[in-house]
Amino acid sequence: MAFSLSNAALRAIPGAFIINSGLGKLNLDEQSAGYMQSMAAKAFPAVKDLDAATFGKALAYSELAVGGTLVAPFIPTRVAGLALGAFAGGMLAMYFKTEEFTLEDGIRPSQEGTAVSKDSWLAAIAIALIVQSKGKKKSKKK
Fold it and tell me: Which of 41, 43, 25 has the alpha carbon at shortest distance from 33?
């Protein structure tokens, strides 16, 4: 696996950000965890069945796992891209299924949805990581 500065930036920067977010959620209070759970339940109704504390821990550990996958250099780029893509897909599903996050057109962010809509950048980075790794394999075969 060859090192490239662009690959390192695409992985390390969002990876560190997601790890920091996960660390911040490790000690969520019940009310904060419950609020996040109610938002997530709009896209993933099954999370309503968890108690808020369990949801908060699961969310924190999931973020730590995704961030760790991104920053670990021994994880293949495509695997890191797929992990980030799943994470970003979940965030965007929540964005599109939460009415107050979008304007009347259902796409453009409202003031409340701007922070979550920025996760579209993570989806773009995930696509870049997946496509970048596919392109490298094709080049090696020639």
Answer: 25
pLDDT at res. 4: 85
Q: How far is residue 32's CA from residue 42's CA, in Å, rounded to a whole number?
A: 16
Instruction: Using the structure block, give the residue that is written with the tokens 């911040």.
Output: 24
Tokens representing 43 are: 């896209």
CA atoms within 13 A on the CB side of 24: 8
The 10 Å Cβ neighbour count of residue 20 is 13
| Cα 70 to Cα 83: distance, rounded to the nearest angstrom | 8
19-77 pLDDT, tens per residue? 999 999 999 999 999 999 999 999 999 999 999 999 999 999 999 999 999 999 999 99
Cβ atoms of 102 and 96 closer than 8 Å: yes
Q: Which residue has the tokens 């969310």?
A: 59
Going by C-alpha positions, the residue among 94, 91, 81 that lies closest to residue 124 is: 81
